[in-house]
Amino acid sequence: MSFAFSLNGVAKRYPHFELQDITLALPEGQVMGLVGVNGAGKTTLLRLITGIAAADAGEVRVLGHRLPAEQVAAKREIGFASEDMRLYRTQTLRWHMDLMQQIYPAWSEDYARELAKRFDLRTDQALGGCSHGQRVKALLLLCLARRPRLLLLDEPTTGLDPVARIEVLEALADVLRDAGRSVLFSSHNTHDVEQLADTITFLHKGRLVASADRNEFIDRWRRIVCQGALPSGLSAWPEIASARANGSLVEIKARAWNESLPARLAAEGLQVQRTDAMGLEDIFITAVRSGGAA
Amino acid sequence: MKLNLPLVRLLVVKDWQLFQKQLATYVLAGIVALCFLGLAESWAFYVGSLMLLIVMVAAACFSISTSLVVERKEQTLSFVMSLPVSPLDFTISKLAGNLITFAVPFVILLGGTLATVLLTPLPDGLFVYALLIFAYILFAFAISLSVAMSVESEGWATFAMIGSMVLINPYIMALAQIPDIDQRTRVDAVVWTLPAVGILISLVVLSIAVLGATTWFHARKPAFN
Amino acid sequence: MNAELFLSASDPRPMYQQIVDQVTAKVMAGDWAAGEALPSIRELAAASRVSVITVRRAYDELERAGVIATRQGKGSVVAERDDLPAALMREELARQLAALLASAARLGLTRKELHRLLDQTADANPGAASASTTRTGR
């Protein structure tokens, strides 16, 4: 299997932040959603994958290129847009499109025009007068129309109104048609990533909390409501991520659900009343709070 | 490391496109200043030379500030870094772009000044003096550009620009202390003296050395940060 | 073939289940005929804006249920059984009958009482009843 990118034991230190021991890979043709709170290290991770930042330790490979040494070759096939990236205020979108066309041979003028229409963007207007949403969409247009093999988007939906957010996600879905193209996009919001992503990666405080296919998370995690007294030592069970009680009502969140769990809980004096699947957001928060792996 | 020349050229053209309007304004203002100089009246000479200095300093600072300081502050830098460029490509493009945008007003106004000195009743001895002043501006530009390329802080970059440009004042006073230079300015003939040639060569060599060292330093960086 | 399905995050069923249900409904209704090629997994994913892995899981389920057939390297087609829509409807009916029996059992109804209730309901809905008479004739 060839990988869009692979990180092996990667670390990066900044004065007030540290990304530690990241081993992560994205098979070609897949979409990965990167979820973490602000300051979790999402942007740093993306900068390492573009080759803009160099790892202090470990190996970074992107589309077969070793980074940062071969960053020029890698960046020819990467479309990277980050939240802290701005276009030239005094220039128009058309000017930026012309620049991209000269740099990227795969640039598609037709697709760029179609996107401008879908995003409701005027190409002849200086970008200084545009709203935040329009600037984000302009940046995304420049990335998408060059048809990169790897699309890296740092918080593409942050700060967008609901309509613009859907437009962005819809444009992102176009990429799914092509099996040779991969996407890594980050968000502090699980809802944005869960619909399109094949794999979901949770990052917290510079560490990888979990990375798995979306269904695996949903299949493994359960919220279990029981009646009875909370037995001591329950939270030490490896499959239990959290357990709390209010009188005789007990709520358990299991990170490794299996059919035998209700019987084992019954043996501890807990009558299982219902088991529910958990949403990704709940899974993420529970995993982060319990400190263990998801 | 191999240079991605087509892209370096594109980046230089991009910076040029961003500056061209302001650049034309500076050249225009410089030509007005030269007209004052050409009147060869003492009040006009004073106004003209002051205006010329202001225009040259402004052009030097504007180029550096727009292409480096503002790019960092307005976060268009991260856009440029996402393009297929290495740190070396980026450094070379910034160096070349700045040198070109600075060279245009510099060469036009230097040529204009020298022509004005020679073709008007102004004493021709000012020819060497004008070269000395322009050489200092070149030197201050080289220092400012190197600092702006090497530090991330807007404060230090601005400090270097203002500091090196303001020092032209003591430099002019120092020139006045050297009889070989000062006295020749009132003579209607171009005379090369040893101190003048020495200062001229030193400033040009130092400028090239500073820019060379900065490029070498950046060329060794494997990544932007 | 328009590949877009109408999926919703506020639907309590998981996304893949919504796809399974909608594809099954389209086949039952005859929108997608037997032997007709289905949209590719990636095409359906892009058009419905849902992840490839979700569509793949739905197609796996549909294949297991016999609604679609996947040929190696050629994509998926609606299963080539003339009676597929009818078979699917019969399966649906079987599920509803099982639910009916379960409800009847909870009410403590005898089989005879249930038969009588069914006849009563059929008499009250003549349209549905006539349909059932035609069917019996076959």
Could you describe the 3D structure shown?
The complex is a heterotrimer of chains A (294), B (225) and C (138). Chain A is an alpha/beta fold and 294 residues long. Chain A is built from 10 helices and 14 strands. Chain A has 2 domains: 3-216, P-loop containing nucleotide triphosphate hydrolases (Rossmann fold, 3-Layer(aba) Sandwich); 222-277, Alpha-Beta Plaits (2-Layer Sandwich). A 6-stranded mixed β-sheet of chain A has the order 6-7-8-3-9-10, with helices on both faces. In chain A, strands 2-1-4-5 form a 4-stranded antiparallel β-sheet. Chain A has a 4-stranded antiparallel β-sheet with strand order 12-13-11-14, sandwiched between helices. In chain A, helix 5 packs parallel to helix 6. Chain A is elongated. Chain B has one domain (5-219). The model of chain B has no long low-confidence stretch (mean pLDDT 89). Chain B has 225 residues and is an all-alpha fold. Chain B contains 9 helices and no strands. In chain C, helix 1 (15-28) crosses helix 3 (52-64) and helix 2 packs across helix 3. By secondary structure, chain C is mainly α. Chain C has helices at 15-28, 41-48, 52-64, 84-107, 111-124, 126-137, and strands at 68-71, 75-78. Chain C has a two-stranded antiparallel ribbon. Residues 131-138 of chain C have low confidence and may be disordered. At the A-B interface, helix 2, strand 6 and helix 3 of A face helix 1 and helix 3 of B.
In oligomeric terms, what are we looking at?
A: heterotrimer
- Secondary-structure content class of chain A: alpha/beta
Largest sheet of chain B: none
Give the strand order of the largest sheet of chain A, numbering strands 1, 2, ... along the chain. Answer: 6-7-8-3-9-10
What labels would you give this structure?
heterotrimer, B: 225 residues, mainly alpha, 9 helices, elongated, C: 138 residues, 2 strands, 62% helix
Topology record:
The complex is a heterotrimer of chains A (294), B (225) and C (138).
Chain A: E1 3-14, E2 17-27, E3 31-35, H1 42-50, E4 57-62, E5 65-67, H2 71-75, E6 78-81, H3 93-103, H4 109-118, H5 132-144, E7 150-153, H6 162-174, E8 182-187, H7 190-194, E9 199-204, E10 207-213, H8 214-220, E11 222-227, E12 240-246, E13 249-254, H9 261-267, E14 271-277, H10 280-290
Parallel strand pairs in A: 3-8, 3-9, 6-7, 7-8
Antiparallel strand pairs in A: 1-2, 1-4, 4-5, 9-10, 11-13, 11-14, 12-13
Helix pairs in contact in A: 4-5, 5-6
Chain B: H1 5-38, H2 42-73, H3 77-82, H4 87-119, H5 126-150, H6 154-166, H7 168-177, H8 179-182, H9 194-219
Helix pairs in contact in B: 1-2, 1-4, 2-4, 2-5, 2-6, 4-5, 4-9, 5-6, 5-9
Chain C: H1 15-28, H2 41-48, H3 52-64, E1 68-71, E2 75-78, H4 84-107, H5 111-124, H6 126-137
